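[Discussion] Sanity-checking designs against the backbone

I'm trying to build intuition for which residues belong where. Below is a structure token string of 146 positions. I'd appreciate it if someone posts a full sequence so I can compare it with mine line by line.
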């Protein structure tokens, strides 16, 4: 029996998180405390264009805007992707939510969680495959209502 192609397998473990700020007015979100335990971040849907955490840290998402974060396993590695970041209010720095994902290689369970409730914000999550394979496309729609 042949071994799976590690490059193909690692790249098959991926997540795209679309952070949408649908708030009225001027409620801007900022990405903070970006962390990656396994895998890599990449640019614009191209898994071969790796970007550094500093490209994401401090990224602002204005009201009416959105920003996508892409992560996958590294080529030639036998791991998937695991990471997190915080979404905070630009004015005041209050935590809106902590976003965490784990899309491991070789298991049948993926994890995607939002934690750290801020009662001024409502967040809707759509998408995500928690069974196996890639986590896939996840859309977060955030609205500040106070």
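Best answer:
Here's mine. Compare freely.
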């Amino acid at each position: 029996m042949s071994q799976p192609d590690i490059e193909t397998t690692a790249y098959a473990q991926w997540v795209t998180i679309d952070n949408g700020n649908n708030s009225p007015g001027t409620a801007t979100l900022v990405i903070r405390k970006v962390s990656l335990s396994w895998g890599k971040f990449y640019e614009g849907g191209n898994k071969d264009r790796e970007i550094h955490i500093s490209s994401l840290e401090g990224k602002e998402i204005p009201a009416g805007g959105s920003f996508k974060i892409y992560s996958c396993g590294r080529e030639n590695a036998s791991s998937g992707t695991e990471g997190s970041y915080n979404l905070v209010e630009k004015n005041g720095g209050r935590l809106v939510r902590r976003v965490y994902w784990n899309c491991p290689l070789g298991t049948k369970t993926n994890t995607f969680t939002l934690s750290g409730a801020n009662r001024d914000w409502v967040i809707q999550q759509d998408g995500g495959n928690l069974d196996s394979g890639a986590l896939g496309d996840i859309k977060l729609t955030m609205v500040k209502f106070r």
